[in-house]
Amino acid sequence: MSLILSLETSVDSCSVALHENGRLLHEELIKEPQAHATKLALLIQVSFQKINRSMRELKAVAITSGPGSYTGLRIGTSTAKGLCFSLNIPLLSVNTLELLIYQASFQNPQNAMLCAMIDARRMEVYSMLANSDRTIVNDTVAEIIEDQSYHSILENQKILFFGNGAVKCKDVINHPNAIFLEDQLPLASFLGELASNKFMSNQFEDLVHFEPFYLKEFLVKKSTKPLF
After folding, report:
1. Is 228 inside any structural domain?
2. Strands 178-180, 159-162: pairing kind
3. What PANTHER family would the database entry show (predicted)?
4. What is the span of the domain harbouring residue 125?
5. What CATH number does the domain containing 57 carry?
6. pLDDT tens column, 18-35
7. Per-residue pLDDT tens over the stretch 157-206
8. How many structural domains compose the chain?
9. CA–CA separation, 212 vs 226, rounded Å?
């Protein structure tokens, strides 16, 4: 029996899921910005209570490794590492954009190419492009979206755009072959499916040295308040 806890903290929403042998047992989701620090531990506790199981039964913990929110990724990683160290179990990770592509592939009736986008503020996004069968074409990049972005591909085929970064690009990437999938958040329920496959093939992370995947440095704003 492989009971796996999955934590998705790379965007404003926060979700927790428990899978056993690849089957979803329970998921908790909260769509509350910047709630990771105060709600993640509670979501984990509630999830175990709902299925009447103990953390001691866990065989692994899975997280999204980014790109995404610096704060969210740090909280998710530190929580996962803490559990793995205390329970002496392995850590699994999945790229957030790969997770989004996996989710969107089940909502792609036109067999369009798949483009996952995560908001990086202003008109910047973290993106990954894949074929309809989820084969990666362009790996994770940080890019500025302009009116001609992706047009060379869109001239020949449809692209399905999704993720919280795609929302702000809808009015910029104006092409009949551009399709936008609304309300597509990375979810722990799908993360657990991918993590279960990694668990079966022993694709574990180095627990000591693992760090989330940051594409941009976290900027600390200088306070404008006087010191005295």
Report:
1. no
2. parallel
3. TRNA N6-ADENOSINE THREONYLCARBAMOYLTRANSFERASE, TRNA THREONYLCARBAMOYLADENOSINE BIOSYNTHESIS PROTEIN TSAB
4. 97-181
5. 3.30.420.40
6. 999 999 999 999 998 888
7. 999 999 999 999 999 999 999 999 998 999 999 999 999 999 999 999 99
8. 2
9. 35
